[in-house]
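Narrative of activities, Objective 1.

The group set out to show that a structural description can be obtained from nothing but a protein's sequence at a throughput compatible with the screening campaign. Below is one input-output pair from the validation batch, recorded exactly as produced.
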Amino acid sequence: MYRPLPENITIRDSGIHGLGLFATADIGYGTMIGKIHFPSNNPNEPYRTPIGAFGNHSDDPNCSKMFFDEDGSWWVFASRDIKEGEEITWRYTLYEVN
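Output recorded for this entry:
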């Protein structure tokens, strides 16, 4: 059965921006949260998953992004322990910084 979010994550109002992802149970360091983007026919416009759509930016994130060359997907994983009720965040920009 398809689940757009892992069982330990929900979407609700965020104090950062709009809606965000929140842990419904403790998530341990190193846990793979899920895929946030995967390639489309246009390399400049990848498809975004529900995790990617509702993840918010933080300068002090609790997750990190990882790129997998095999299929061109981006994933996030817990870069520290995340407590139940905590918003799940990672660092991102909408443009390239030179």
